[in-house]
Amino acid sequence: MSPTPQLSLSVQLPDDETFESYRSSINEPATRLLSSFIAQEQLIDSSIHSTYLFGLNDVGKSHLLHACCAFAQSVNLSSVCLSFTEKEQLSPEMLQGLENIDVICLDDIQCINQDTQWQQAVFDLYNRVIEYDKRIIISGDREVNELGLTLPDLTSRLSWGHVLQIKPLNDDEKLEALQCRGQQRGLYISDEVGRFLLARINRDMTSLLTALDTLDKASIREQRRITIPFIKEVLLNG
């Protein structure tokens, strides 16, 4: 039977957020486990259907969920990724039928910690995922027992499968991540330029990648290489 096609949702996954572009040696065991979990390799217990990722903001949890979908596609599995940060534009009924998707990724579960209707919908989806022998991967900003969920059964479910803590990147890993993203866009980011950005821009990856996007657009518009003087002009008002 051919895999169910990826759902037609308004969510557009970034095409540069893959396991290969996630540069973090400290989190490499987590990325290896995720790929094995999705591919259902023999070293992973096939009776486990869920993985919970947790960590501080900007450690790359969303990147890893997007990477899970990209990897699923590469091994001919269907996938879907939804973020609870957009729950006001979504409805719990959207989770109905997702058990037909091979790999289901749900981001930022802490956003529904006071919403019993959403929590019940996720709990019910868990049960259907197990029944249909699919895989579900959920992220949150803290450990399961610290999420403050109002549905104890969902807290229990989140602890059933793999639980992975995603740790912050160090400066060398952030530099490598910037250079990798730049390379994907056809930009050369030297070590000197990258370390200048780390010193002058907020060190969280969201701010750094936003700055890279701004520089990319300005570089194309002005047909200039990304240098320290160019960064000063574009980002630091000269």
Description:
This protein is an alpha/beta fold. The protein has two domains: 138 residues, Rossmann fold, CATH 3.40.50; 65 residues. The chain is built from eight helices and five strands; from the N terminus they run αβαββαβαβαααα. The protein has a five-stranded parallel beta sheet with strand order 2-3-4-1-5, with helices on both faces. The longest helix has 18 residues. It is elongated and about 55 Å long.
Query: Whole-number radius of gyration?
Result: 19 Å
> What's the CATH C level of the largest domain?
Alpha Beta
Low-confidence stretches: 1-10
- What coarse outline follows from CA principal-axis ratios? elongated
Number of domains: 2
Bin the strand percentage.
5-15%
Number of strands: 5
Instruction: Work out the oligomeric state of the chains in this entry.
Output: single chain
Tell me the number of helical segments per DSSP (H or I, 4 or more residues long): 8
Q: What's the SSE pattern?
A: HEHEEHEHEHHHH
